[in-house]
Specification:
13% strand
Amino acid sequence: MCRWACRNGVSGYGKTNIPGRRTTYRGGAERTVQEAKRDIVALSFHDYLLTELDVRKDSRRSDMKFIFGNIAEELLPLLSRILPPGSETMNFVDYTASRVVQRREVLKNIPSDDVPCTLIYTFHDDNVGVLPQLAIGSLHELTKDLRLHGWSAIMILVLPI
């Protein structure tokens, strides 16, 4: 892990993005720590495959790009320094549009000019309710924030059975 962190210029966390300080997160501060640890291990594994083993070298698609999903919020500001060039992210900030709006500051923490970012949000699911129009205000606010911070979005339409 030290080789990966040193090679990618990641010497530590800033004061504001230390895992465990986000106590209002669903699942508590301990969950934020576990998520950050999980993602550091996964990123280290991908770095080993892509950098040390250079698995793309002999493939037919040596130019392939990677999309990393749902990286811990505390690691988002570091993405431009730790992801391979040409990578993208797809993220769930929270489960419903209204909860993402309550935590909208997260959207500005990724340097989206360097790492293209996509937010995944639902238009209709069991948390939004029978009438998807109830979430329109939150979806509108999110869409404005996404445009402001240079993100893309994908809407997932989940139909009740």
